[in-house]
Amino acid sequence: MNWKKWFKAAGIRAIRTFAEAALAYIGTGAIVLGDVNWLAVLSAGGFGFVFRESHTCRGVLTLGFDDIVREVEGAVLFTEEQAERIIDFIEAHVGVETLLVHCYGGQSRSRAVGAFAVKMLGGNNARYFETGRPNEHVYETLERVWQRRRSAG
Predict the structure, then answer these.
(1) Which pTM was predicted?
(2) Cα–Cα distances in Å, from 141 out to 61, 70, 131, 151?
(3) What pLDDT sits at residue 74?
């Protein structure tokens, strides 16, 4: 893999998606930069679009962490506090028909959260491990926090 080319392309995508998110939030209502909700613009991350609650989307949880399995300087490791928030979110949305889990790469972090959610809700999550490789740190942290909660009763 040509890492230099990949990082350049990733940087361009990040700038474009930031600009798209900024335009979506700024719209035509902001006259001066002080009128812009910059926290909302920055929270759009690399998705290129922003999830919002609506009649078709009953809840949104946005977390930021990198696809790593141990501490790496300059990167954000998934935490137990984030695991708590995910578990709370799943519990609050047990009755929904679809639970959408999305991450920038869409391979490891979202697969780990999806596999955990299926297991937590009583389903068989084997396919998540057969067809890919969930981020082991994310999955194990979710499992550990959930087991601790269940034990505390």
Answers:
(1) 0.68
(2) 18, 12, 21, 15
(3) 87
